[in-house]
Amino acid sequence: MSERFDLAIVGSGPAGLSAALNAKIRKKKFMIFGNKDFSSKLTSAHEINNYLGFYRKSGKELGEEFNNHLKEMDISITEEKINNIYAMGEYFALMVNEKMYEATAIILATGVQYGKLFDGEERLLGKGVGYCATCDAPLYKDKVVTIISYNKHEEAEANFISSIAAKVYYIPMYKEEVEVNSAIEIVRDTPISIEGEDKVGKLKLKDSEIDTDGIFILRDSISPGQLVPGLKIVDNHIEVDRLMSTNIPGCFAAGDVVGAPYQYIKAAGEGNIAALSAVNYIDSISKK
């Protein structure tokens, strides 16, 4: 049986971090999943003037203050990617590759899902299109795999699957230098559509095309509706009430993922509310 936490927080932006601080203060057993380096959206901000108490701070400076606060509170971010979350009744199962975590309540603070889906992506999801290369790697032994990656962190997934697949194409959607093993072919072109009848057969790009058996799209975050089956989504955002409660009992959401305005101080406030609501929910469950 997996160890069960009181709370799992998915996302390490201002909403997720604020939720973690309050979970710590309320002495709950929790995990926060995300990136220790935070998002490029935060660190690239030139100047922030509407975050109370931090006048004329850059995004990088604000990120440093966040890190200092986490260290003082002895909070660490788990750098693992949650691929799916399932409501199991009295708890949630969070899937990370071969592992599973359990939590009584969850807070989704995954930010905004940027960019629209590729043509054919939704139709061929589970039929050669996936979002976790290491999860499905055994299915592609001696086959051709294409990886579309939006983050340099995902290069490790490409290296892993190259040891199993016959051929791996890697399409970086980021500007940093690509450092993958020599067996992987780097393709610098823009994906347009995914083609195939009952399964993936081809990826069409702006200036070329690739015959492939599988395509993994490694975005910074999975859209909430794909992450948590049954979650109510309205206008591409998670629907919540004033207590940051979603339509699923025990599931809360905060920050950009619940809608505009997309501002750090708003996200931090919602993270605070979501944590307090989650704590009340956890306490009510423990009394039963």
TrEMBL record:
InterPro entries: FAD/NAD-bd_sf, FAD/NAD-binding_dom, Ferredoxin-NADP_redctase_2. Gene3D superfamilies: FAD/NAD(P)-binding domain. Residues 5-143 form the FAD/NAD(P)-binding domain. It is an enzyme of class 1 (oxidoreductase). Keywords: Flavoprotein, Oxidoreductase. Its EC number is 1.8.1.9. The keyword Flavoprotein applies. PANTHER family: THIOREDOXIN REDUCTASE 1-RELATED-RELATED. This is Thioredoxin reductase TrxB. The gene is trxB4.
